[in-house]
Amino acid sequence: MQAEQLPEEQLPGVDEPGSAQVVPVVQSEELWFSDGNIIIRSLPSGAPPIRAVYKVHRSILSLHCSAFAALFEGPKDEAFIAGSEHYEKLPLMDLPDDAEDLRHFLKALYFHEGLHIHTSVPLFERWRAPFPPSYPGILRLATKYDASKVRRILVDALQAQWPARLAAYDGMNNGMNKSVDEGPSFREDFPSDPGRAIRLATDFDIPDVLPFAYYALARLIASPELSKIKPGELTHLTPNELNVLILGVADLRVQTNRIISSTQGWTSKCQQDLVYDDEAEDDVSPCEHSLEQWVERQHALESCCGDPLAWLKVMSMLCMDIEDVCETCRVYVRTDVLVDARNRLWKTLPAVFGLVRCS
Ligand SMILES: [Zn+2]
What we know:
Strand order of the largest sheet: 1-2-4-3-6-5
Low-confidence stretches: 7-16
Oligomer: single chain
Distance between the termini: 46 Å
Mean pLDDT: 84
Strand content: 5-15%
Shape: elongated
Number of helices: 13
Bound molecules: zinc ion
Number of domains: 2
Number of strands: 8
Radius of gyration: 28 Å
Largest sheet: 6 strands, mixed
């Protein structure tokens, strides 16, 4: 950290209970205001461990965090000062937090630009930008000390990265500067770090983020994309969450198979004369058999893709070229059937990944 170690004779509280080790106390350079009126001291953290101290303002802490406002309010402030250990004649407050988390959090209160590292990246590049490593610590302390505005900014950033609405996901994907020459692709861009997003959203109660983040991770483990998983990506998940993920992958295949087996309804607008089908033992549209075969061919491609949302989108691009299917059926499949299937699939994601809370 950017800090300077205090001379040993000035170290406040270096004796760690139960430990023979003396943990050095390090004064923050960037969060040591000459007119500060409170000293905050972190837990021992890092390797080798240090305790960091920050000289900040009770008014700034109160302004942003209702937890501190309650502590420093009126007569309570006097009681707090009177009851505190002192350093440089200022009250010293121990916070049970990691030094780096505290540094990021206090910096966020004083220098707001740190909160916008991610959202200041151009929209279409944001998905490829790693989620800032400072965000988890800030989010943790903003939640803990009830810094609602700070928390709101980071929650918004996470929700923008992992949209809850399919239209928002499509809008982001359409703008990812794809080469026109690439043609329809079964691979779409996804935001980076889905495992970390799941951890943050679960730990800090941001449920809107979870369905799409789980889907993105499921896509990675369901297919040759596995090689694209970053080292440690899955370590963000608990054993139970990994179990949910694996069951979700299987359920996505069930959902996809359901779509494949529903082609009978895809010719409901067909204007052509029906013909008798021996297998169905009924009169059916002459387009039905061709559609069925086409979908099976497309599914064979999907089976090595593991991304049914992309698969359905690509099918809607290709379906105007299906042979032996009338124009009415092609248009209906494109504008109604596949769009509807995709919307329904998106809506099932919370259930697929066990995120539907029992009331
Ligand atoms: Zn037809």
